[in-house]
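Project standup — Tuesday

K.O.: blocked on the structure for the chain from last sprint. Re-posting the sequence here as requested.
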Amino acid sequence: MAEPHDQAVIMGNKARSIAFRNEILLHFHARGFRSAARKKEPKGMSLHELMKVDRGDIVGLPWTILARNQLTIDASAMQDLAKNAALDNGHELYAVIQSRRTRDVSESYVTLPLSVFTRVLARLHPEIVTPRETPS
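H.V.: unblocked you, prediction finished:
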């Protein structure tokens, strides 16, 4: 069983994480992405309902997005979590938004693998993509 001090630290961390997610949502909403939302809490959901809930911390977008408010950044582990959540969601695109201490939410890091970045770049600028040559 956790000591009272440990429980206070856990609750403080959870509160900071929720606040960070809310700041991310405000940032998205201010830029017109009104469909962005916090994921539903699984409390009281049946197994069938749980299977239909998007994985990720920010839902309502065509990406799987995890939000992390941690002292240290483990980019590799977070990308693995995001990739698995994206597979569960049927999303091709995924990223992790990571807090930067003492910085505005707009200065948070967004990390994604090179494979996802090149897909996004190709969608934004299809005019510069040269089709691959097929070997004869």
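K.O.: great, moving the ticket to review. The first strand starts at residue 37 and ends at 38. The helical segments are 4-30, 47-52, 75-89, 114-124.
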